[in-house]
Design goal:
With 289 residues, the protein is mainly α. It contains eight helices and five strands; from the N terminus they run H-H-H-H-H-E-E-H-H-E-E-E-H.
Length: 289
């Protein structure tokens, strides 16, 4: 019964996201799957952390949406502000999988992986939504060359600070939530462990996103508008030309790789920290022998 209630509640939130134009129809369905899985198998704290990511990211999508700089930058993106199923799964699917695996194979690794994956998604989204407002032109992470705002793999100081604040937001939120293990089903991890998983895992995921975006993500050019884009078909309706990267590597795949990186790094750190805490707690016992 609880699992059914979890998916029904997630469906209601997905519907609200659809009505608020934060999600497309397919995105709302995917949000139901991701949210229901996280709530049903991870409990209230896990669901709250997921909502914190989604709500903050959606609000930033609408923040200064009419700013000319933001409008110009978003013209290069493959998709608009309404997240579809692929975007939802790329950002939240790894976190949901970590919760599901933790339910059947309890481990602090999966708790850290859940936090790390959400932190990476948050860092990437916050960096994108706020970085495009930077007064300075972004630079490619790989070469340092100045490029147009919105270019895949490009970073700004403002975007980097936003990414760092995003990881801290998820880390501190997770640290507060792990104080209520009675409301959750994820194996307990200490406050320090989840903060570390968020900060380092999120940062690692953000760096991976920029590196992949600057190297193998597909980059196209519209000859009519004389503008770079991530899309095979530009918004003006013109078929674009591939000028870099691999045609099958789009932004959703890069985002998925970033959350996988955040999950692996965050999970490993949480597991190592928990192991060290266990060893330290047993030291007095072995000393008394």
């Amino acid at each position: 019964m609880f699992f059914l209630l979890s998916y029904l509640l997630a469906a209601a939130i997905g519907y609200l996201g659809y009505r608020a134009r934060a999600l497309s129809a397919s995105g709302a369905v995917a949000a139901c799957v991701v949210g229901g899985t996280v709530f049903g198998f991870g409990g209230i704290p896990a669901a709250v952390l997921l909502v914190a990511f989604f709500a903050s990211s959606s609000l930033l999508s609408f923040f200064r949406a009419g700013d000319p700089a933001k409008r110009r930058a978003t013209e290069t993106f493959e998709k608009g502000g309404r997240r579809d199923a692929a975007q939802v799964m790329a950002n939240g699917g790894v976190a949901a999988l970590a919760v599901l695996l933790s339910y059947f194979f309890p481990s602090t690794f999966f708790s850290g992986a859940f936090v790390g994956a959400l932190s990476a998604a948050t860092a990437d989204t916050w960096a994108t939504e706020l970085g495009v407002l930077s007064k300075r032109r972004p630079r490619l992470l790989t070469t340092g060359a100045q490029v147009q705002a919105g270019t895949s793999g490009a970073v700004t100081l403002l975007g980097s600070v936003a990414a760092a604040v995003g990881t801290l937001f998820i880390g501190l939120s997770a640290a507060l939530l792990v104080r209520f293990p009675e409301f959750g089903q994820l194996p307990a991890a200490s406050e320090i462990a989840v903060v570390g998983a968020a900060l380092i895992g999120g940062t690692a995921g953000s760096i991976a996103d920029s590196l992949l975006g600057a190297t193998i993500q597909a980059r196209y050019y519209c000859p009519v508008c004389d503008k770079p884009t991530e899309s095979k078909l530009h918004r003006c309706g013109t078929r674009t030309t591939l000028i870099g990267g691999l045609a099958w590597v789009n932004n959703d795949l890069v985002n998925l790789a970033a959350t996988v990186t955040g999950a692996l790094v965050g999970g490993t750190l949480a597991a190592i920290w928990s192991y060290n805490e266990l060893v330290e707690s047993m030291r007095p016992f072995f000393g008394a022998l």
